[in-house]
Amino acid sequence: MDEPGESSAARLLSHPGVQRFPSSRLDLFILREFLSAERCAQLIDLIETNNRPSTIADYNGDDAFRTSSTCDLSRNYPVVDELAQALSRLSGIDLAYAEPLQGQRYEVGQEFKAHTDYFEPDSADFEKYCKVPGQRTWTFMIYLNDVEAGGATRFKVIDKMIQPETGKLIGWNNRRADGSCNAATLHHAMKVRKGRKYVITQWYRERPWG
Ligand SMILES: O=C(O)CCC(=O)C(=O)O
Ligand SMILES: [Fe+2]
Q1: Which-ligand-closest: CA of 192?
Q2: Domain spans of the chain?
Q3: What is the Å distance from ligand 2's center to 112 Cα?
Q4: How far is the CA of 183 from the centre of ligand 1 (A)?
Q5: Which one of 93, 95, 174, 209 is most buried, counting C-beta atoms within 10 A?
Q6: Across all residues in the chain, what is the average pLDDT?
Q7: What number does the ligand 1 atom closest to the CA of 190 have?
Q8: Residue 86 CB-density burial (10 A; 0-12 exposed, 13-18 middle, 19+ buried)
Q9: pTM confidence score
Q10: What superfamily does domain 9-205 belong to in CATH?
Q11: Among 69, 101, 199, which residue has the most ligand 1 atoms within 8 Å of its CB, making it the best to mutate?
Q12: What's the confidence (pLDDT) of residue 53?
């Protein structure tokens, strides 16, 4: 039985089509066609109608660090609720441990430079963002469209580039087996060169979101 807030390789690999990236440093999984093109189009419409400039925790003085737009996706929309539930079934993580889903839109030239999704345990923001729900455990991200050029997600430490593709899901464990933060999860949402890129992200926590 997995800990609450935790998925596992066994759980993910029991789902047809899930592939594991071979690495001893990082648990990273890929599932193509997780979402249909129709669902992706509906979610893109939602992101287009309601978005704001993206922000980062642990501000590092670089205003160009994350230049995309973010959309908070309410589960009051049936298409969002259905997605949150499908992710919970896939990951095996109870929805109580899920942050609200977020959409991101990148226009030409926009990116999210190399970062990790966990909060630095000794940072000022750790207390603010993790006091109640705890650390981020797993990340699942779905690409909603094929990008004409650019926009890959590059995992620098393990030297893996993942190309956006309509409906493709990737997921990884932000921590090692002993619970420590895994710096090999460092990833860079590279600049879009042509077209737009849309993704949806689900982060899970150690404790219920509240
Ligand atoms: O857009 C991507 O490829 C990655 C997004 C990401 O890393 C994030 O939102 O934390
Ligand atoms: Fe990220």
Answers
A1: 1
A2: 9-205
A3: 8
A4: 15
A5: 93
A6: 94
A7: 3
A8: middle
A9: 0.95
A10: q2cbj1_9rhob like domain (2.60.120.620)
A11: 199
A12: 87
